[in-house]
Design goal:
The chain has about 260 residues and is of the alpha/beta class. It has a single domain (about 5-255), classed as FMN-linked oxidoreductases (TIM Barrel). The protein has ten helices and eight strands. The longest helix has 18 residues, at about 105-120. Bound molecules: SN-glycerol-1-phosphate.
Amino acid sequence: MSGKVWKYITEKLASDGACHFSLLDPDPLGTSIENVVKQAKLVEKAGSDAVMIGGSTIFGVIDDAVAQIGEAIDIPTILFPGNITGVSEHADAVFFMSLLNSTNPYWIIGAQALAAPKIKLTGIEAIPMAYLMVAPGKTAAWVGDAKPFLRDKPKIPAMYAIAAELFGMKLVYLEAGSGAEGGGVPPEMISTVSQYIEIPVITGGGFNDKESVVTAVNAGASIVVQGTYIEKHVQNDKGAGLSKIVKGLKEAGAKRV
Ligand code: 1GP
C-alpha cells in the first residue's frame, strides 16, 4: 500500500482548501461502461479532483468499468464499495469504510473483514473512513440497516465523528443518500461535526447545484461528492455546469487556505 492517493488528497486540500469528487455508478441496469467512461473524462476536464466508483446496488461485476475508467483519466479512481462486490484491484484506492450508525454488524465490520484479505493481498491503497448516514439516507440507509441521524440533531453525528477520529480513521463521510431531497446534509450539521474533529469531512447526497456545494464548503466540508448531478447533466452539457460548480467550490476553498 503506497499511500499515493491519500498523499494526493492531503496535498490538494492543503493547496485548494476543498476538493470535488465525482461519484460514478457503473450499474448496467442504469447505464453502460461506455457512458461512465465518457462521464469520467468529462468530470476530469471540468476540474473534479477524483472519481469515486460504486453504488449500493451492484448489478454485475465492476472490474471492467474500473479498469476502463482508470485507463481513460489521470485523476485517482477510488472505490466506494456498497458491499464486497464493489472491490476491484484495478482502482487506485478504496475508501475502506465502516457504516458506524448501522444497526447490523455486517455493515460495520463484517463486509470489511470479508473484503480485507483481497485488499491486502492485491495491495489496493485503503483509506479508512467513517461512513455516517444522515436522514433521509435513501437506498444506502435501507441497504445498510442504518439508523440515520436526525437532520436537526448535529451533536449525535459529532460524537460518532470524534469516535472515528479516535479510532484512527482518516475521513468522516456525512451521507444524506444518493438523490436526497433538501440540498444535502444540513450546513449546521457539517459545521458542528467539523468543529470537533481535525480529520477532513467529506459529504454527499443531494448536492445538486453550485449553491449547495459552496454552502457545504463554507460550513466546513473539505470534500463534496456529486453523483446524481453528474449522471443527469455532465454528458448533456459537456461538463459546462460542473466546471462552474467546481470553480465555485475552489473559490470557497481558497478562503480556507
Ligand atoms: C451518494 O453521496 C453520494 O453516495 C452522492 O449523492 O447522487 O445525490 O449526488 P448524489
